[in-house]
Amino acid sequence: MNAFSNTAAVAPAFPAASDERLLIPPAVEPRKTGTRRLALGRTIPFGALIGPALLLVIWSIGSIAGLIDPRTLPAPWSVVGTAIDLIAEGKLQHHLMTSAWRAAQGLVFGILIGTILALISGLSRLGEAIIDGPVQIKRAIPTLALIPLLMLWFGIGEGMKVTTIALAVLIPIYIQTHSSLRSIDSRYVELAQTLRMGYGEFIRQVILPGALPGFFLGLRFAVTYAWLSLVVVEQVNATSGIGYMIDLARNYGQTDIIIVGLVVYALLGLASDGIVRFFQERSLSWRRTLAD
């Protein structure tokens, strides 16, 4: 009796049925992952215009406050007035069409040659042995350094200008496309062999989709290089073009016309890059990237 009583005395008091919830540890809610926090976030509407708008505001404020000498850099409204006068006279349209035609010719020839060379070199060991070395040598030599030699070969006419632009364009197309071809995962090749794909189907289903990201990256560089080369070649025995207009304005100290030409070049570069990015997003819509 005493033992039972002592046991009862030291035994802990168990909670009643209504207090069983006290024995159950509180549920731990799963911690939310921060994957969305690591992403870039939502796209800022018209975000690409914020930087140029800030530059324009600073330029305007400096002109109004007299901090910028108008002989060195005319005010924005003076440049706009000059552009309107050039458009009214038809000069700007004429020079713009000439420059656009030269750039388009060089760009098309450079893209075609660069893509063909990249495919031959990227899909064949023999092609790589023959093609890759000369292209890498050309890559190490600035295209503008070849202008004196091209002038001896092609003269100082349109052929030299288009060839210079094409040589500048084909290098980024070749490098990026060739790199993408060689970076295709070998497991896709093994899968194609397992499915017994023909060579044509293998090119269409595996090679071309794998090379597209590099091709579009090279194309964005190529468009920029085309406009950069155009600026130089249009100052070599040219009678029309935006570069010729800028060079002629330099001789007469017409800073406002020079700024108009530079703005035109900038707008052409932004517009062409935007077009390439548009087709890049549509062609590579199957990819999921950090920007998505």
From TrEMBL:
SUPFAM superfamilies: MetI-like
Record-level GO BP terms: alkanesulfonate transmembrane transport
Transmembrane segments: 46-68, 106-127, 139-156, 162-181, 202-228, 257-279
InterPro entries: MetI-like, MetI-like_sf
Family label: Belongs to the binding-protein-dependent transport system permease family.
Chief site of localization: membrane
Residue ranges of domain ABC transmembrane type-1 in the record: 96-276
Record's function text: Probably part of an ABC transporter complex. Probably responsible for the translocation of the substrate across the membrane.
GO cellular component annotations of the record: plasma membrane
Cellular compartments annotated: Cell membrane
Organism of provenance: Mesorhizobium prunaredense
Keywords: Cell membrane, Membrane, Transmembrane, Transmembrane helix, Transport
Matches recorded under Pfam families: BPD_transp_1
Name of the featured protein: Alkanesulfonate transporter subunit membrane component of ABC superfamily
Keyword Transport: yes
Membrane topology qualifier: Multi-pass membrane protein
